[in-house]
Specification:
By secondary structure, the chain is α+β, with helices and mostly antiparallel strands. It has one domain. The chain is built from 2 helices and 5 strands; from the N terminus they run ββαβββα. Strands 4-3-2-1-5 form a 5-stranded antiparallel sheet. The longest helix is centred in the N-terminal third of the chain and has 5 residues.
Length: about 70
Protein backbone atom coordinates (compact mmCIF):
# COMPACT_ATOMS: atom_id res chain seq x y z
CA UNK A 1 0.00 0.00 0.00
CA UNK A 2 1.21 3.50 -0.78
CA UNK A 3 0.53 6.67 1.19
CA UNK A 4 1.68 10.24 0.64
CA UNK A 5 3.79 12.22 3.10
CA UNK A 6 2.14 15.57 3.94
CA UNK A 7 5.31 17.64 4.11
CA UNK A 8 7.14 16.44 1.01
CA UNK A 9 4.35 14.96 -1.12
CA UNK A 10 6.53 11.86 -1.66
CA UNK A 11 4.94 8.42 -1.91
CA UNK A 12 5.70 6.06 0.97
CA UNK A 13 5.39 2.30 0.60
CA UNK A 14 3.86 0.92 3.80
CA UNK A 15 5.69 -2.24 4.85
CA UNK A 16 3.68 -2.89 8.01
CA UNK A 17 -0.09 -2.82 7.47
CA UNK A 18 -0.65 -3.96 11.05
CA UNK A 19 1.05 -0.79 12.36
CA UNK A 20 -1.01 1.30 9.94
CA UNK A 21 -4.38 0.07 11.17
CA UNK A 22 -3.52 -0.24 14.88
CA UNK A 23 -4.54 3.00 16.66
CA UNK A 24 -2.08 2.32 19.49
CA UNK A 25 0.88 2.47 17.09
CA UNK A 26 1.81 6.08 16.30
CA UNK A 27 4.43 5.14 13.70
CA UNK A 28 4.77 2.61 10.91
CA UNK A 29 7.63 1.12 8.93
CA UNK A 30 7.85 2.21 5.31
CA UNK A 31 10.17 3.52 2.64
CA UNK A 32 10.09 6.25 0.05
CA UNK A 33 9.12 5.15 -3.43
CA UNK A 34 11.43 7.28 -5.54
CA UNK A 35 14.30 6.49 -7.86
CA UNK A 36 15.45 3.17 -9.22
CA UNK A 37 16.94 1.79 -6.01
CA UNK A 38 14.77 1.15 -2.98
CA UNK A 39 15.88 3.12 0.06
CA UNK A 40 16.23 1.52 3.48
CA UNK A 41 13.01 1.25 5.53
CA UNK A 42 12.43 3.84 8.25
CA UNK A 43 9.75 4.91 10.71
CA UNK A 44 7.06 7.38 9.62
CA UNK A 45 4.60 9.14 11.91
CA UNK A 46 1.04 8.26 10.92
CA UNK A 47 -0.18 11.82 11.51
CA UNK A 48 2.07 12.97 8.63
CA UNK A 49 0.61 10.54 6.09
CA UNK A 50 -2.36 10.81 3.73
CA UNK A 51 -3.88 8.68 1.02
CA UNK A 52 -2.42 9.55 -2.41
CA UNK A 53 -5.74 11.27 -3.24
CA UNK A 54 -5.11 13.73 -0.38
CA UNK A 55 -7.71 12.24 1.98
CA UNK A 56 -6.69 11.82 5.63
CA UNK A 57 -6.32 8.40 7.20
CA UNK A 58 -9.42 7.10 9.00
CA UNK A 59 -9.70 8.33 12.57
CA UNK A 60 -9.94 4.75 13.86
CA UNK A 61 -6.35 4.15 12.62
CA UNK A 62 -4.94 7.01 14.73
CA UNK A 63 -7.21 7.51 17.74
CA UNK A 64 -7.73 4.60 20.18
CA UNK A 65 -10.69 6.47 21.73
CA UNK A 66 -12.48 7.21 18.46
CA UNK A 67 -15.76 5.74 19.77
CA UNK A 68 -15.72 7.42 23.19
CA UNK A 69 -18.30 10.04 22.18
CA UNK A 70 -20.72 7.31 21.04
CA UNK A 71 -20.40 5.44 24.33
CA UNK A 72 -21.28 8.54 26.36
CA UNK A 73 -24.67 8.96 24.67
Amino acid sequence: MFLKEKDSGELVEVLSLRDLTDPFHKTLIGRYNAGEELPDPKKFSKVNLLFPSGEPLPRCWNDPDFRAAELLR
